[in-house]
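Hi again,

Forgot to attach this to my earlier email, sorry! This is the prediction with pyridoxal-5'-phosphate bound. I've pasted everything inline since the attachment limit keeps bouncing my files.
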Amino acid sequence: MPGMEVFGAEERKEVMDVLETGALFRYGHEHIRKGMWKAAEFEAEVRRQTGANYAHAVSSGSTAVTSIMAAAGVGHGDEVVVPPYTFVAPIEAVFLAGALPVFAEIDESLCLSPEGIEKAVTPTTKAVLLIHMCGASADLDGIVAVCKKHNLILLEDCGQAMGATHKGKSVGLHGVAGAFSFDYFKITTCGEGGVTITNDEEIYKNIDYVADHGHTHLGNNRGMEDHFVMGSNFRMGEMNAGIGLAQMRKLPRILEQNRKNKKYLKDRLKEIDGLTFRKMADEAGDSATFLNFFVPTGEVAVKLFEQFAKDGVGGIANWYTNMYHFINQWDHIKEIKFPSKLAIHDLGAPQDYKNLSLPKSEDVISRLICIGISCTWKEEELAAYTDKVIASIRKVL
Ligand SMILES: Cc1ncc(COP(=O)(O)O)c(C=O)c1O
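Structure tokens for the complex follow:
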């Protein structure tokens, strides 16, 4: 959870700047804002660090996904390939957009695999919503190739992967657009927030409109701005943007420290026979927020989690049983439960969600052990923590 770990004076200063003027809204109000435009500065910093031509701040990672889908023309009745392992937000976004999720297999990269996508594609598939899980990129070379072959729109949910790159290019720039989360648990946080990036001007304009009731943001009379499309309120406020800006400025230091700490932990765990590590499409571009490894079987994983609990070893996630990250716990989604009627209730589901067979994903997630990396670990602290982790593993393996 690096973002929250490094919250400090820089973030407070940005918030105080905003509080001193009272210009809480990102648009207009020039007469009170003393030249401060935090959301615009935040977006400029995101562009600078990701290399994107365009960035647009929004209210959450969830609304970022909604915005890029809408901007790319993915909506009512469109089949969208999604993974069964992700925080639930992007799956919900697909349903709420009126689109139809098609679950495909992940592999040891923890993300959709090119083969998984290929098997799920039908003549009516419109898009792939690729989710770069746990801070590192999916196999983008293979996935971009499959999307090109089948003429699919590639959308990237980089909610957990700010700072991650694939072959030198930021995640989020390998398809049409990328969506990032700045919620409290992310590598860079502003409490609640999100940002979208793209190199496509038309997509950027659509995101800008959709995130603010269709406002074109041209001229200086908000009430008289033209509108080409409808939208909603996905705006980010100036205080959140100020915090996001301070956090983005800290990102290079967070990445450096994460990578150093993760390398130490991984190098030591490599000494244990029987462990294998997450498949990385480009390890150099990993934001290193998590160390993911596999034990030989799901039964061993259950025993190991019990051992960690007994030994008081914290900071390790069991995504197989977590209610929000793996499809085996998503009965409400498989039953398509929502208080009101969704498009899919009329159109019909493209798969029998209740009887899905995803053996590869099931195997991968049941064997997965995921350790959160702290960027504030001192050397001795990290060494002592690693000793404890290894001791627990040795008791089980
Ligand atoms: C991959 C992914 N996408 C989207 C989101 C949603 O982000 P938010 O909580 O900012 O709405 C999350 C949040 O955990 C996430 O992990």
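The longest strand covers residues 125-131. Residues 60-62, 65, 86-87, 89-90, 131, 157, 159-160, 181, 183, 194 surround pyridoxal-5'-phosphate (CB under 6 Å).

That should be everything now.

G.
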